[in-house]
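[audit] Reproducing an earlier prediction to check determinism. Same input, same settings, fresh worker. If the tokens differ from the archived copy the diff job will pick it up downstream; this log only records the rerun itself.
[audit] input (828 residues):
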Amino acid sequence: PVAARRTVPAVTSAAPLEAIDPMDVPPPVPPPAPPANLGGFEETIGSRWAVWVGAIALGLGGIFLVRYSIEQGLIGPGMRIALGLLFSLALLAGGEWLRRSDKGLPTLPLADIPSALTGAGSVAAFGTIYAAHALYDFIGPAFTFVALGGVGLGTLVLAGLHGPLLGAIGLVAAFAAPFLVAAKDPNPFVFPIYAAIITATCFALAWIRNWSWLRLAATAVSVILGALTLVATSGGAYPSLVQALAGIVAAALFVVPGIRFAEARERGGDVVATVILCAFALLAMLAVAEGQREMTAVALFGLLAFAVMGLVWRAPSVTAAVPVTGLFALLILLGWAVGMKPSGLADPLGVPPEFPATLSRLTWSGLAFALVFGIGPAFLGVWRRQREAWVVLTLSATSVVVPLAVLAIVYGKVEGFVISPRFAALAMVLAASFGAATEAAHRLRSGQRPGLASASALYAIGALAALAFALTLLLERAWLTLALGLMVAGIAWVYTFRPLPQLRWVAALAGVGVLVRVLWDPAINGGDVGQMIVFNWLLPGYGLPALAAAAASIMLRRRRGEDAPVRILEALAMVFAALLMIVQVRHAFGAHGLRLFAAPMRFPEAATHTVTMLAFGLGLSRLASIRTGALWENAALLVRYASWAWIGVAMGFAFNPWVTGADVGPHPVFNWALLGYGFGAALAAAVALLDRRAGRLVESRTMGLFALAMLVNYMNITVALLFRGEVSLRGISDAELYAYSAVWLVFGIALLAAGAWLGSRTLRLASAAMVALAVLKVFLVDMAGLTGLWRALSFIGLGLVLLVVGRVYQRVLGIAQARAQAPPPAGS
């Protein structure tokens, strides 16, 4: 190196860098080219297919040789078996010799010749032992079972040296051994113990070679074969429970991180370990559900659940296995409740089996599961210090959901979904327990305890759900609706003391639940609503939820301002208030006031609906002018559009006395038409005035036109009642026809006078519309329909009115023009 450095020419410091000729620097030596690939086809044919086709040919050659010896009678059965074993040993020895000889040589993972020879030897040995038992009866079932299992286990051990393909062969061979040996009086515990040994061996090999696929494959085969054995035999639940517990133990040793051999995980979940634990829990669930309702089986399942929770104590990465195990416990109870076994799914129309003392066993099993999955996850999530929030949330949710679901399942089976004070008391105890857990989580939360704030909210939600469930079990009909409505305000009140953000949404969702309850039974108290108008079950049934939602929205807004839950509660308060008016009117005009939807709607009820709808819209418009926010504006617009549709369709056509001939009352002035059209027009005019002040000109003009139309219709009805005592388009006399023109003209003059007095251009335009309508009627209807004096009076009256209108407009326009041209006052 020193001589090399001396041969490099020196560069003086005075020479600039640009003066150095780049050609003087020797070019870099290119790296050696990689060996040329001989081509994918040649590689596949020569180095892969040849290996495996050769291995298959060896196996077929052995089979053909045995077949030839049998057909020709060359050698006896004993010699055939001995030669088969020698052939198997030769293949195994050859594979091992090649493995040791080929160390340091490149091999292909999917075409390893030593692995292929060893696999062929294992298969040949397996087939030879099975033939010695099944074809020649040389060995008994017990020895055959041990020998086949030994071949399978040996193959798994050799897979640690030869690779994953041999592991797959050993897995299949090991689990197939018990099903290839027939015993006269089989012991049901043999296969579970054997499967546990094979599974543990696979887990150990997978841990050594880091083969996740072998863990999952061994678990899948073990659980599937265990389930098939459970259904096909009459061994009961205990053998499969033993297999499941043994599988949990094997997984704890070799699969679950941080327990014994598997490397611990700092954070996150372990999907493979969780799936394996859930698979064995599934096998246990199938065993208990398929059994004879034994309490000992329930106890063993509880032991398995505690084992899973114990693993979570050391390894939080498998926390997700706890809620899955809880779900399996619920499925056990549900299957018992409906009388369904897993094997019964193949014959859903079959008669379910009967078991003695099902209700008592279901009750005690439910109590056990509620305690196991209520206390265990709560202790792990709240009192055990966890470093990840998702672990705390998962465990807390499990300890809330599972006990509530257990209580619902047992209640439905035992009581048949009727009022039950004893189950209501159990629900109250559950609510108190959740309340205590809420306080505990709230006091233990800190910066070093992530997830406890959300856990406190979950337990609070569970307490409220249990309380609602208790009310459902204790009350019915109207009382249940009232209790649920009060609970909405109660949740908001609790939020003022424990400001958990989730409680805001719980209050909103509880309000939605009350709305669903009301829509389920709109009469609130079934058919017995009450005979009194207004003061009946509808008033508290709709009014109390409206007040509760409004109070809850106020309490939530004062604590943290307006957000989505507050808006939902405000909207619910509006909906309940609107429904209250609708159902009260419906009840007032119902069949004897006993049933809400007994009588068809008639004109008096339609008129009352019109007034209440417009009054409700007027109130919303007034509140929208005071409150800020899009909710009130949109609510007012929605009610306004509904009012337009109702006035146009219902009052204009469907229930209009001119169309239906309906009776509006005996008095020509004070009748139902005065309520529907007269008062309705006044309310519509008030709404139009509010819209005008708020700058909604289009809405104001539209509502004003509806008000004008309703008032004109009321005047026409009054004229018809004065002349004929009924509202009909038939039998109109000349005097009545003239009276319509006179009333329209007088009304037009009145509108004009009011518009001139108040300076309202809108009233003057309405006057012009009425006068124009009267002109059209006189020229188109009166000229053709009236005769004699009435025709003359019609035209004389029209002429006088038009002159008056012209005179008034001249005065109004002259005053307006003079005001526009007047100079501004001095000093302005």
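[audit] rerun output stored. Observation attached for the diff report: Residues 51 and 112 are 8 Å apart (CA to CA).
[audit] end
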